[in-house]
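User: Teach me something about this protein's shape.
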Amino acid sequence: MADGIEAELKVAVDAAGALHLARLSTLSGLSVTAKGDKRLVSTYFDTPDLALRAKGISLRLRRAGRSGEQTVKFSGSFSLGLAERPEFNVPYAGRVPDLARLPDEAAAELTKLVDGRPLVPLFSMRVARRRWEIVTPGGDRIEMALDRGVATAGSRRADIREVEFELLSGDRRALFDVARPALAGAAFHFSTRAKSDLGYALLEGDIGAAEPATAVDADLDDDMSVEMALQLVLRSCAVQISANVAALRIGDDPEGAHQLRVGLRRLRTALKVFEPVIATGAAEPLAEEAQWLAAEVAATRDMDVLIDELVAPLDGGGDIAALIGLLEKRRKAARRRLAAVLADRRTGDFLIDLLAFTEARGWLSMGDVGQSGDLAAPVARFAERVVAGLRRKVKKLGRDPEALSPEERHDLRKRFKRLRYAYDFFEPLLPKSTRRKLLPRVKAAQDVLGVLNDIHMAHVMLDDVHAAGPKAGAVERAIGYCLGWHSARAKAIWERRSDDLTLD
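Assistant: First, the predicted structure itself:
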């Protein structure tokens, strides 16, 4: 891309995905031209005290054969694989940076920042790059580049398998239109950092496998519009979902399934609470896919809770051990199925569609003339209305907890969950009295209903367990013991804490 604002989408793939993409030759409805292969060696420089990194700037020298290039990228936005940042490139085959070769404005800013200190090499990237130019029917031009190689910082190394979709010309939405079919059949997740960030992490010894991630605050404030808040909330949901998809693809930490399900629930809540300002029907496909994926995750998550939180803590000797052995086989089967689901094209399409909806303003309506005003309105008033409405629904159903049927109790749990997530989204905008008094009560009610739901799921799941063989008797005794123990526990919790379900 010429000097200016670089716009690109970055995704990480596994070895099988990289091999699949390397064979790309055609994409239905798109013009695909292979641009050949290059071997690139990039060395990144900074001052000894990392002054460039502190300002979000990267400076590199790249060699491809006998030719070379000097590149500086300034701080910009990098949100879940989608990067937009000012970039300047100049031909240069030297071995140390020459800031004077950069355009005047960039050279002046870097020279001032460096302030006479030496620029030293910190880490390097050696990759084999395969490129394609892809043109959409509308004339948008995208360069797709597959990088396979290694990053090195001293004795530390990390594999690089990354695909970049860079906008050469046209509409930014074309990045997603191209990425969706190109990535079909490849397990991937959105990159959360640039290559320079990977190098600095290596330098500091802070590189490791993807780990389960909790929700990231949307950081709303009173000066924001409803639309700005909507985008930030959706980004928060997308970050959590993508991070936990990545964690589950390479590991089996139970927290990954838990946080992925939380992220999907937060997304569905966000689409629901912002529904009044979203074009009619625009969010329905996304919500339906989130619900589908959540149901797939639930089989693994429910088994994790059953084994780790409800069965294993009980003191039942050999009988409990026999039951756990049987349940572990089911957990392994559930995890295998979930791994297949997360590697499936449907999950990949969902991730791209979520990012496209978030970053390309998929909520806009072409025919609703009043939508612009609703989106531009201050978010604080909108947040107050949303929270008040959800609170009324909770109070209405929870007015008499003792009279609730099991189905109504489950519905009340879902209403509390929506209210809790709405509080989480809008917490910085709510009155201090609400944050101090009401939020703890909502959390307490959610805890009560969550435990009771887990116990209910234990009954459902254990009722479906039928043992055979020499350990059948031990398994049956363990099931009876677990169900009896937790039934008594549920009764005690309800008698002691049912008042927590009212918000009067």
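Now, about its shape. Residues 4-203 form a domain with the Hypothetical Protein Pfu-838710-001 fold (CATH 2.40.320.10). Strands lie at 4-13, 31-46, 58-64, 67-73, 77-79, 82-91, 120-135, 141-153, 156-169, 188-190. If you'd like, I can walk through any region in more detail.
User: That's plenty for now, thanks!
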